[in-house]
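ok new one. same drill as before - structure tokens go in, u give me an amino acid for every spot. 477 of them this time. try not to just spam alanines like last time pls lmao
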């Protein structure tokens, strides 16, 4: 069997992740021309709304070959509102590329992604992008990675900025690489040998040790460049082939797989799976739970920038299957895997969804159920008490996307209410709390229930004299 590798590419929004994906496909001869986000012709941002907004909304699957390995790449959204797609992708990876802007450095979403990658102990390569931009600084960003993410990173090159914003790459010497190696058990013998007799350790030996530690997720290589100018991406392709471990393939075992994504197109449900063990062929019956099984009527894989049919898939492969009804996060087949599947998404707001025309209510429910299949965190529900439909969302951008999708995909002119916080609790009785800070200041907070439907009412008053008197009385006691 051919070696196979599943990797994801991640970033904070606008760090250049999708442009890097385009360059990877170009450098590996999958595409002949590099698409641009601003012109809406990239391979992975294929939805109409992605092209219009210039952002990735849902993960996409492509593949290419490096050093005889078949690499399955999942391009994920960078905006925090679509973190559910990030969460699902991380659960099926053998390696990850984390893109950092050389201008902005480590950003908010970088922390969330990094924490999730570490929970799964996924080998990771950092790519510092936009090094051609004004204000980009490779050394500063490298320092941020070490200090803010508290991790052992090692640059495989030095990037030098010139006055006209051009960049040049300089290979690091053996001495420089040794300096960056972390003080961990696996490097002690190598470092000791180097310190005693510098000629006794070659640069190739140092790089082989770094590759080994990278595959074990004990050290994290850093390279950089400018995806917009297709600079540094050839080096990234090389690193993908050398610094990531191949998947552990066990086709002889019983079939099991993890469902990481569901898509519904033209009424057909497509189940995206990572095969954990065994092999699956078309027309096989798949065990869904202890009582139910279903027959597969189609299997597809990513072949470059296209999705093509195939007869079977085996362990380590990402496949798209049809004919069965499964949910995101579900294990299918022999479901005895006890892996720790991460959860990083906690929807923050609720919104009511309604239509302008009462006759469209059934179509709205059907459309929302399809969107809920694709993203279970929407938590579509009907309230008997209010007789309204509600969904849960991460933020305002996601709300705008849902509204657009209801119109573009389903032809529905739907309305979303103003957001409300995800959880409210009505106090059952009146209560008062007090705090005193200085001789002349303090705070008194009272909470009490109001009649149903009153909403949240806030009143404030200043009682400086009584506070001072109260403080003095306390001091006397």
């Amino acid at each position: 069997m051919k070696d196979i590798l599943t990797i994801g590419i991640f970033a904070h929004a606008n760090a250049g992740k999708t442009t890097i994906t385009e360059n990877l496909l170009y450098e590996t001869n999958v595409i002949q021309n590099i698409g641009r986000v601003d012109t809406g012709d990239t391979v992975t941002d294929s939805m109409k709304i992605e092209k219009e907004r210039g952002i990735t909304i849902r993960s996409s699957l492509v593949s290419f070959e490096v050093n005889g390995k078949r690499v399955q790449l999942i391009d994920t959204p960078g905006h925090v509102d679509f973190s559910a797609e990030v969460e699902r992708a991380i659960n099926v990876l053998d390696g990850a590329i984390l893109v950092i802007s050389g201008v902005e450095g480590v950003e908010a979403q970088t922390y969330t992604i990094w924490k999730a990658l570490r929970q799964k102990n996924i080998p990771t390569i950092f790519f510092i992008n936009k090094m051609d931009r004004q204000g980009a600084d490779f050394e500063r960003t490298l320092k941020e990675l070490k200090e803010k993410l508290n991790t052992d990173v090692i640059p495989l090159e030095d990037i030098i900025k010139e006055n006209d914003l051009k960049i040049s790459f300089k290979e690091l010497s053996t001495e420089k690489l040794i300096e960056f190696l972390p003080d961990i058990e696996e490097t002690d013998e190598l470092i000791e040998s180097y310190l005693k007799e510098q000629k006794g350790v070659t640069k190739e030996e140092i790089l082989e040790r770094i590759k080994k530690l990278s595959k074990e997720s004990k050290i994290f290589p850093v390279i950089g460049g400018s995806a917009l100018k297709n600079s540094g991406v050839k080096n990234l392709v090389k690193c993908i082939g050398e610094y990531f471990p191949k998947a552990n393939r066990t086709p002889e075992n019983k079939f099991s797989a993890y469902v990481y994504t569901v898509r519904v197109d033209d009424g057909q449900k497509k189940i995206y799976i990572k095969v954990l063990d065994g092999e699956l062929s078309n027309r096989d019956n798949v065990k869904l739970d202890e009582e139910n099984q279903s027959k597969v009527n189609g299997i597809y894989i990513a072949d470059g920038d296209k999705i093509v049919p195939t007869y079977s898939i085996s362990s380590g492969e990402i496949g798209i299957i049809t004919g069965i009804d499964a949910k995101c996060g579900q294990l299918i087949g022999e479901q005895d895997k006890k892996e720790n599947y991460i959860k990083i998404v906690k929807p923050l707001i609720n919104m009511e969804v309604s239509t302008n025309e009462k006759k469209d209510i059934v179509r709205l429910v059907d459309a929302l159920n399809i969107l809920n299949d694709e993203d279970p965190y929407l938590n579509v529900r009907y309230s008997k008490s209010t007789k309204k439909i509600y969904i849960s969302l991460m933020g305002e951008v996601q709300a705008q996307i849902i509204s657009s999708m209801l119109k573009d995909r389903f032809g529905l002119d739907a309305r979303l209410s103003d957001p409300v916080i995800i959880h409210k609790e009505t106090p059952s009785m009146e209560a008062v709390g007090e705090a005193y800070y200085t001789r002349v200041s303090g705070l008194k907070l009272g909470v009490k229930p109001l009649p149903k439907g009153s909403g949240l009412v806030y009143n404030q008053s200043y009682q400086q004299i009584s506070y001072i008197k109260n403080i003095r009385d306390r001091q006397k006691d």
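The two ends are 82 Å apart (CA to CA). and btw Residues 8 and 74 are 5 Å apart (CA to CA).
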